[in-house]
Specification:
The chain is an alpha+beta fold. The chain has 14 helices and 15 strands. The chain folds into three domains: 183 residues, no CATH class; 69 residues, no CATH class; 120 residues, no CATH class.
Length: 402
């Protein structure tokens, strides 16, 4: 069973423990797995330790906690704990946290082609690796706690089924939705179980915005982490507000009454080394029919296709010196974060088109050029990349005076 530690999987597991008629297997056949992102709220740890772990230990349920062991595609995993009497949660690995990955790339968690890439990297891949090692290809039932209203997610999950994996969604069979799960846990433990997620998860500011504000007030270190991630991500991509197009982590923190924290993060970031980044994106026109060749006649020039990015730090300096340099190159402070950017290209429509700017932002994000970038960029305007690069950045010193 994949145990996300949230309302749904906690209710499912608890019912199995308390009501043997709800299951068709012996608990000795059950292995409960959690892959840690390293950035969950402390409240989740406390709920697990105080309420669920004692019942699991009482029934000698095997509980395995895992974490990704590094950044690479083949990094593998660490086993944080593997026990039939777990009394303590280990909420992060020693070698990798999801926030390390986001910080290094200068991004906030995002969906790539309708897939939560962060979740795949921190959880899905890790669980797959462990299961492959532990079961060696033997057939197994994989229990996932999708609630009754998540039939679409379960259908998508079913499409990942392999010959050995037989997915099972008991909550959907029982007709238990989120409310039923919450009520069941409330009844059993006398507490409101909270959603389990990373403190900066972008999917927590919808109908549960009040709860998010409360959680950030209770655990301001999580809000701080979100503010830091968002700042650099927005500098590199102005569309990267943490909670979608209209709501930033900054706005939510202020709404939560954490204005002092926002100012503290701004001041702290301003005191760190800064860099000027050369950021470029290129967008093809979207393909109309994926089954047909990708020629111009099969493209909608008013719809954006899959973009490609190039990011390069071109010099380092201080907050003041990098911003002054970009301002002197025609830049302006933009948006609520007052990020200083100097634009040379704005993306279409029509497409294909280019987007390019220089921006001052906290240092530390390394050069990264997507594999598709050179071709998509060149296609956008028939201009070789080098012709664009030189006039912009060749005269900048590698380090600016303070
Ligand atoms: S909780 Fe949110 S941010 Fe964390 S892995 Fe899942 S989807 Fe990504």
């Amino acid at each position: 069973m994949s145990m996300g530690m949230g309302v749904d999987s906690a209710a499912l597991l608890l019912r199995w423990l308390l009501d043997p008629r709800s299951r068709d297997f012996d608990l000795s056949d059950l292995t409960v797995l959690t892959a840690m992102t390293g950035d969950e709220y402390t409240a989740t740890r406390m709920l697990m330790e105080k309420y669920l772990l004692p019942v699991m230990a009482q029934h000698a349920v095997r509980y395995v906690m895992l974490a990704r062991a590094g950044q690479s595609e083949t990094a593998g995993y660490e086993v944080l704990s593997d026990s039939h009497s777990t009394s303590r949660m280990i909420m992060h690995g020693t070698r990798w946290r999801l926030s390390d990955e986001q910080t290094a790339a200068g991004v906030v968690p995002q969906q790539v082609r309708h897939r939560r890439f962060c979740s795949y990297r921190a959880k899905g891949q890790v669980l797959d690796w462990w299961i492959a090692d532990a079961l060696g290809g033997a057939a197994y039932r994989h229990v996932v706690g999708f609630a009754a209203e998540e039939v679409r997610r379960s259908s998508k999950d079913t499409s990942y089924t392999s010959a050995a994996r037989n997915p099972w969604y008991p909550l959907i069979e029982w007709g238990w939705d989120r409310q039923s799960c919450l009520a069941y846990l409330q009844d059993a433990f006398g507490v409101t179980w909270s959603r389990s997620c990373c403190g900066y998860c972008p999917f927590q500011a919808g109908p549960e915005l009040d709860l998010l504000c409360q959680r950030w007030r209770n655990e301001p270190d999580r809000a701080e982490q979100a503010l830091r991630l968002e700042y650099t991500a927005v500098a590199i991509n102005p569309r990267s507000l943490l909670f979608g197009k209209k709501r930033s982590a900054r706005q939510v923190a202020i709404l939560a009454g954490l204005r002092d924290l926002v100012e503290h993060v701004d001041a702290d970031l301003a005191a760190q080394p800064w860099a000027i980044y050369d950021v470029r994106r290129a967008y093809p026109a979207r393909r109309l029919d994926k089954t047909k060749p990708s020629g111009l006649e099969n493209r909608d020039s008013y719809a954006k296709g899959q973009g490609a990015r190039s990011l390069e730090p071109v010099c380092v300096g201080t907050y003041d010196s990098t911003r002054a340099t970009v301002l002197a190159m025609g830049g302006q402070p933009e948006g609520e974060h007052q990020i200083v950017r100097a634009w040379t290209h704005r993306a279409g429509p029509p497409y294909p088109s280019r987007e390019a700017f220089l921006v001052a932002a906290p240092a530390g994000v390394p050069t990264k050029v997507g594999p598709a970038f050179p071709a998509v960029w060149a296609q956008a305007e028939d201009t070789p990349v080098a012709q664009f690069r030189d006039p912009w950045t060749s005269h900048l010193p590698l380090a600016l005076a303070a």
